[in-house]
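Aim 2 progress. For DeoR/GlpR family DNA-binding transcription regulator, the working sequence is reproduced below.
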Amino acid sequence: MLASQRKQIILELLAREKQVLSSELSQKFAISEDSIRRDLRELAAEGLLQRVHGGALPVSAAIAPIETRKNVQNRSKQNVAAKAAKLIQPAQVVMIDGGTTAHELVMRLPKDMAFTVVTHSPGIAVSLVDHPLVEVIVIGGRLFKHSVVTVGSAMIDAISHINADLFFMGVTGIHASAGFTTGDYEEACVKRALSQRAAETVVMASDEKMNAASAFAIGPLSLASTLVVDSEPDMALRAAFAEQQIEIL
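Predicted structure tokens for this construct:
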């Protein structure tokens, strides 16, 4: 079998099973694990999968630049944001992540409700200027231009003084074994730190992020208390969330 044929079968298996293991692929194709690892390296270099220890996972489509992401799964993001906005109650302190789904959330926030928003996204902060009853706290730091959010030690130190009711967290991948992931190491650290400062973390995920993974782990699925999605997760992912007692909206 040609290497190109083998790679195509690997991608088909990955799409169907949501995970492939090097040892199992080695047995299936009757070749060494070194050869399989080379296949996986080459497929990863083409952006077709995400390598992990022992195998590979589907790669997330949500790691493109923000201008590109604005045009990905727009209807799904809008549906997710509409559901998420209903979780906010008067007088709460709410942390809102950056990202395109978060921007959809802000567009659906009620203008007649008084509550506080804490954000490290300049774009989110500016979008709340015309909400007269919303107090906005902007967390500064180094601007990570890919996602247009602040990161760094100054940002982490600032949020250590905040106790929020909710954190609306954006991710680029959700997978039963890989947990919540994103495409940048420092951004993963920031998301993890924000989650630790909130009583509840709400993960908002449009369809392209389900059963996918990126290079950097934010944390396990247990990091979230609620998952807001547009369509029903598959059985394996539902079981993983049920095991952690995470509500799916």
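The domain at 66-248 is CATH 3.40.50.1360 (Rossmann fold). This observation will guide construct design in the next reporting period.
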